[in-house]
């Protein structure tokens, strides 16, 4: 077993909060070479894996993919099926389109991952963080409790936080350091590879470099703010003639934090600063591809 696989096995994996945290913890062992492929292309259309980063408009993209592949042709929330498949309790899924809120490092551990073209969508990092915090406030500690103590604690901190004062924001930031949740810079964390420990460890600008190198290997990279462009690119990639449609799903109902809160934006910068660097580089990458 390689060092990376040992590190991955050392991290217990749990299903994440829907639309809040990715499913980077699970009870099953990581995939190694020669093991069963949990997802296998059907061969009717181009095989695509959509990496759904929480709070980046993934539900809207999923609806578009269902128009391309048909509702039955898209395996949604694929991370929820993994444990049963890898434990031998369920058969591998034969599908041309996999949608999962699953860190790339885990996807790449699976046999057959290379059979799928990768697609993902990023979002303005500050707007994404605000949406994530509001979602946690919406479901509350009780709603988060079923996903584990770290998730509940994270929701508790959001609920009790004062996002209108400097002292309240400082306290919120300091309290987050006590929670093993990988809450900050989630877009980098979802794309960084190497070992599973990268999902909860302190990340650095070097991790942004690793995440960007992986992003360069994606067939399609889009942005939540420009979903029509992403849809058109997916249509070209899959060879389908389906008109793009502007639909945005998954907006948080709660408003404990606003994108217009400049004080919070400045104080909470460490929570999304590296995501900003990745987002800027992704913008340049997509612009270069369009030339």
Strand content: 5-15%
| Distance N to C terminus | 43 Å
DSSP summary, beta strand count: 7
| Total individual domains | 1
Using the coordinates shown, work out and report the CATH topology: Rossmann fold
CATH arch. level architecture: 3-Layer(aba) Sandwich
List SSEs in N-to-C order. HEEHEHEEHEHHHHHEHHH
What is the gyration radius calculated from CA atoms? 18 Å
Protein name: Sulfotransferase family protein
InterPro entries: P-loop_NTPase (IPR027417)
Organism: Paragemmobacter amnigenus
Quick tags:
7 strands, globular, single chain, 12 helices, alpha/beta, Rossmann fold, 5-stranded parallel beta sheet
Strand and helix layout:
Layout (H helix, E strand, L loop, with lengths): L2 H8 L28 E2 L7 E4 L6 H12 L4 E2 L6 H5 L6 E2 L2 E4 L3 H4 L9 E6 L2 H21 L3 H12 L5 H11 L9 H6 L13 H11 L4 E4 L3 H12 L23 H6 L5 H17 L2
Parallel strand pairs: 1-4, 2-5, 2-6, 3-5, 6-7
Helix pairs in contact: 2-10, 5-6, 9-12
